[in-house]
What we know:
The complex is a heterodimer of chains A (302) and B (354).
Chain A: H1 2-30, H2 38-56, H3 59-83, H4 88-111, H5 122-125, H6 139-157, H7 159-169, H8 171-176, H9 181-207, H10 219-229, H11 234-254, E1 258-259, E2 262-263, H12 266-281
Antiparallel strand pairs in A: 1-2
Chain B: H1 9-34, H2 39-51, H3 54-79, H4 87-105, H5 111-140, H6 144-167, H7 197-214, H8 216-226, H9 228-233, H10 238-265, H11 276-286, H12 291-314, H13 322-336, H14 342-353
Amino acid sequence: xxxxxxxxxxxLRVATPLILCAMGGLLSERSGxxxxxxxxKMLMAAFFSAAVAAVTHSAWWGVAAGIAAAEAMALxxxxxxxxxxxxxxxxxxxxxxxxxxxxxxxxxxxxxxxGQTPALEGQGERxxxxxxxxxxxxxxxxxxxxxxxxxxxxxxxxxxGLRLRAVGEMPLxxxxxxISVPWLRYRAVLLxxxxxxxxxxxxxIAQNAGFTRDMTAGQGFIALAAVIFGKWxxxxxxxxxxxxxxxxxxxxxxxxxxVAGIExxxxxxxxxxxxxxxxxxxxxxxxxxxxxxxxLPYEKEH
Amino acid sequence: xxxxxxxxxxxxxxxxPLVNIALAFIxxxxxxxxxxxxxxxxxxxxxxxxFGSPESIGYTLYYATNFIFTGLAVSVxxxxxxxxxxxxxxxYIGGLGxxxxxxALDRYLPIWLMIPVGIAAxxxxxxxxxxxxxxxxAWRGSHIVITTIMFNFVAAALMVYLMVNVLxxxxxxxxxxxxxxxxxxxxxxxxxxxxxxLVLALVCCVGVWGFLWHTPWxxxxxxxxxxxxxxxxxxxxxxxxxxxxxxxxxxLAGMVGVNELLGVHxxxxxxxxxGYGFAGIAVSLMGRNHPFGIVLAALLFGALQxxxxxxxxxxxxxxxxxxxxxxxxVILFSGALVNLPRPWLQALLALRRS
Lengths: 302, 354
């Protein structure tokens, strides 16, 4: 029983940033803006939340700074993709590389620890578990779980959500109805920034006690994979995040375990989210169809 | 927004890219200023660090070699309208192929045979790693951008597994293979890391130029990039062109393995692609997808890499990762925000005409 509890808790801990990030990516992609830059937004948020939490000794200022940093990146992405109709994938790649460099350069300049931020002291500077000290259930874990029904409700039950989906499928129709395509997409991109900011803050000041270089370690891409795996729908994406989280949680426990006489390589389990996504996209397990206008800049005729 | 006259060709080809790059470097200057260093002093140290001595020039050219390979890789795919973000993984697997060939044969083959076999193996493995995403896009309709990203991670996991469990030298504590025999050492040019791979890179440049602009396949590939429907109408098999473009791209990325493993490390190590694959996107964008431009851009990035390393010794507040920041900004301004200065230039040129 205890093992089950620990594995479930570990799954949830690992899945939390994935869920937050995936909901953000989902909102952005449903509006037609590809977000390859989730990783960069999370990394930037992780750095600023840890840096500000260390300086102000307040976890909450840390979270605020993390959100602000991710929003700044989101605005840049919006500027490039929506206002200047640039290539969305190129913009995302640029933001990832920029974040990976800037966090280390600034971290090194400000704290002289080779890119790390000072270690955060338990209570106050970090977000601590609320109910189960062994489970690590900080408030952001619950926020992540809550973000899924909220995203679902926003997308399927509100006027904003309806328009958001429409702008991702056929922006011309939305424009013809007299609704601003850029403003809708900006709101989607900014919501994505908010969620990615929470995800990054969680990694730096709840899951860990400070920032280390490249600490997001591909989780933004796993979240992106979860969005695709969930076929751009919130609850299936949650399922994918939990599955990837479970894989990660058992990977540590499976180290050295033999199945039918063959040792399961940990690396195989680590690579599974990526491999499964490739299989899914190739149509070997179901079919994932992206929003129709995804990746296409909208140009108003004039 | 009122539509203006399009820019004249010279402004489109020369002025706009220069303005974009200038914007990127102005932003770099601001960031350097923010961390409390005089940008001009940093620039001076950087230039001296990159070109100040024969040794530093050697390192600059050695880094540039990698950037040429990955820049060419990105641009070949890009001419076919394919965005290959998998250069990192293809370089990794290309290096694996190169290393495996050497580990198998370096005790039997003379150097003049071993080196070409190593190069061929790198090209083959790099191409194979790119062929899977290409096949998946061409036949199964999955998007090449996502698949190549995923393949980078799969390559990294595979390499860690192989190095830790299979290829590790007996008795070694760190995950690296046994040392290659001297028959697999790429001949050095000068004293340090610079080796004949630079010549290979320049040959690849000429080859890519000849392929793209002087062969029917290159023509078909570029047509596919410009207008896939027209390409189909002209009888081009898009699936085969996708495979060809991506395999060439992967083979070029795999050459990083030649420069790194045959040229410098002389064994298989972990993490040798070290971001060159991603940097190739910046090189390609900056070089306007033309081999000549790519050589210039690769030289610049090589100088930044080498000069940046020297700079971080002199001014510890500036980190080596400054180079990564510059790469990101170049991709942002010459790629994603390429249209940013266009209205300014249009207004400026319109002003001159009236």
